[in-house]
Amino acid sequence: MSLRVKLSFSYGRRKALDNVEFSAERGELLAIIGPNGAGKSTLLKCTVGILEGEGTVSLNGRELTRMKPGERAKLITYVPQSSFPEFAFTIEEFVEMGAYATKGDVEGALKRVGLWERRREPVTFLSGGEYQLALIARALAQGSEAILLDEPTSHLDINHALLVMELLNELKEEKIIVAVLHDLNLALSYADRLLILKGGRKVWEGKPESLEPEILEDVYGVKAEIVEVEGRRLLVAGLSKV
User: Fold this and answer.
1) Which of 79, 85, 88, 198 has its CA 20 to 30 A from that of 19?
2) Exposed, middle or buried, 127 (CB in 10 Å: 0-12/13-18/19+)?
3) Is the pTM of this model over 0.85?
4) Going from the N-terminus, what domains does the chain have, and what CATH number goes with each?
5) Which residues, at least 6 apart from 89, have a Cβ–Cβ distance to it below 8 Å?
6) pLDDT above 70: residue 80
7) pLDDT confidence of 1, banded at 50, 70, 90?
């Protein structure tokens, strides 16, 4: 199972994505990283069809850009950046919204993230970390083959951030998982492959163990050192190089 993407996109005269190309496979977690304004969220939105980019997006050889939204929803799912819910739907109702177009498995999705027993509670009762799990459950209920997540650990405490990453690590064996990550150490620890964007362009792609600190220094403009702690690579960032 593979997702193949080659996209460009502009906001008016500003080029937000310049011929960015990548692939993602089931069995791996692909993390997209880069500074603010690099085009990470835009890339995800163009891939799932929220924004209309120029190029191609194919899943297992099927061209997604030519499909109707309902048909595309059965194949690929987008999990946006977490924001606090405005309406007091029950957790079950909230997750059912993801399954509406595809008649997916709401019960199975809620059990997978540990929220089935709380399904009748208002979603507004959830903490930030629990709400992120509800968003992932809604994506799972859609039953698609690929899930794209935009900063799924943003604003979470370390416990819930690790819980989300462990869940994604499990899900990659069943689905294609692509996640934009703000936390570089989570990316280094959990991703099987990294895609680095800067200024709407791909500047590096490869396995975390191949990443050199000089690349991060160039992309983020800070002094960087990568150290190993108990078998894991961790980033130590210093002051700006400017």
Assistant:
1) 79
2) exposed
3) yes
4) 2-75+144-210 (3.40.50.300)
5) 97, 122, 123
6) yes
7) confident
